[in-house]
Amino acid sequence: MTVVVFGSINMDLVARTPHLPAPGETITGHEFFTAPGGKGANQAVAAARMKAPTKMIGRVGDDAFGSELRQHLAAAGVDTGAVATNAGVSSGVAVIAVDDAAQNNIIIIPGANGRVGESDVERLAGHLVGAGALLLQLEVPLPAVIAAARQARQHGVTVILDPAPALDLPAEIYPLVEILTPNEVEARQLVGFEVNTPDDAARAAEALLDRGVKTAIIKMGAQGVYYATQTQTGDSPLAEFVPAFEVKAIDTVAAGDAFNGGLATALLEDQPLATAVRWGAAVGALSTTKPGAQPSMPGRAEFERFLQAQGE
To answer: Is 222 left (phi over 0), alpha (psi -120 to 50) or beta?
Structure first.
C-alpha cells in the first residue's frame, strides 16, 4: 500500500522578521533562506519521513529550482518518477514572511503548478493501483483536483483533501472526499461562519458532513483538532476534540501539511481514526519546532520518541 500525493511543488523563499509588515510598511528582517515546499510536496515528505511508501504526482519548471525540488523529494524517500517538467515555465514559488511569534503570511506564484491538468490525472491513474490514500490540496487547478478525486474513488482509494488555500468548493467535490481537513480559516470559507472555538468547529464539521464528506477534521492550531465522522448506521456522528500537544513553536509553516502526512501514514498502517488524528497532531506539532516547510518534517524515530514522552 502506498500514499499517493497529487499537488503542488514549490520553492519557498523565507524571510524571518520581528513582525509581519503592515500595508506600505518596510521593515528589516533578520534571516533569509530557501527551502523546498508546496503543499503537495510537503505532505509527500511528511508521509515519507514517517516511513510510508509515497509517490508524488505534480510538475516543476525546467529551472534550477525544479532540479533542486526533485532532489529534495527523492532524498526524503519520495518516488518522483511521475513528476513532470514544463519547458519554458518557472517552478512554483512561495514568498513567505515569518515573525517572531511564529505567525506567517504567504504569496504563491504557481508557475508549473498552474499547468497541472488532464495529462497529470491520466498519469495518476496508473499509480492508484495498490494505493491506500490519495492526498489532495488546492494549489493546483481545481478541475484537476476534482478529476483526481474521481479517479481515486473509481479505484477504491481513500481521498484526503486539505482545502488550502481557502476557496469556495463546488458541491460535486464533497461526496468524493473521504476526509476533509480544513483549518479554522478554510473552514470559515467553506461554511460561512467564524470557526474560533471547539463548539464552532463542531458546527462546521456537521455542516461539512451534511454536504457528503465522510469525515471532517478541523485543525485549530494551538487549540487542537476537532473531528467528526458519519457512522455506518446513519446515527449521530462520532466526534471528539483532541487538545494540541504542547511544544515551543518557532515556525508554523506547513504544520497542516505535516498533520495530513501523519494522518495518512496512520491510516495506511490500519490505525483507527482516533489514533490517526493523534498521529497527525503530533507530526504537526513537531514540525512547528523547526524552521522551513519540508526541512521541518520529523522522521519516524523522532515522532516515536515524542509520543513516548507524552506517555502514548
So the answer is: alpha
> How far is Cα 64 from Cα 70, in angstroms, rounded to an integer?
10
Write the CA distances from 23 to 12, 20, 26, integer angstroms. 22, 10, 9
Enzyme catalytic residues: 257
Of the candidates 253, 296, 228, 181, the residue with the CA atom closest to the CA atom of residue 20? 253
- Peptide bond just before 141 cis, omega within 30 deg: no
- The DSSP output letter for 203 is H
Give the contacts of 270 (CB within 8 A, at least 6 positions apart).
none
Alpha-helical (H) ranges within 5-141 are 39-49, 64-75, 118-125
> How do strand 78-86 and strand 10-17 relate by DSSP bridges?
unpaired
What's the predicted TM-score (pTM) here? Answer: 0.92
| Segments in 22-101 forming alpha helices (H) | 39-49, 64-75
Q: Which long-range contacts (CB under 8 A, 24 or more apart) does 102-108 make?
A: 102/249, 102/250, 102/251, 102/252, 102/288, 103/20, 103/252, 104/20, 104/251, 104/252, 104/253, 105/20, 106/253, 108/10, 108/139, 108/165
- Cβ neighbourhood burial of 55 (10 Å; 0-12, 13-18, 19+): buried
pLDDT tens string 189-241: 999 999 999 999 999 999 999 999 999 999 999 999 999 998 755 555 689 99
C-alpha cell of residue 276: 490517526
Given a contact cutoff of 8 angstroms between Cβ atoms, the answer to whether 118 and 147 are in contact is yes
- Cell 471547539 found at: 198
Going from the N-terminus, what domains does the chain have, and what CATH number goes with each?
A: 2-9+37-92+110-309 (3.40.1190.20)
User: Which triple of cell numbers denotes residue 66?
Assistant: 525544479
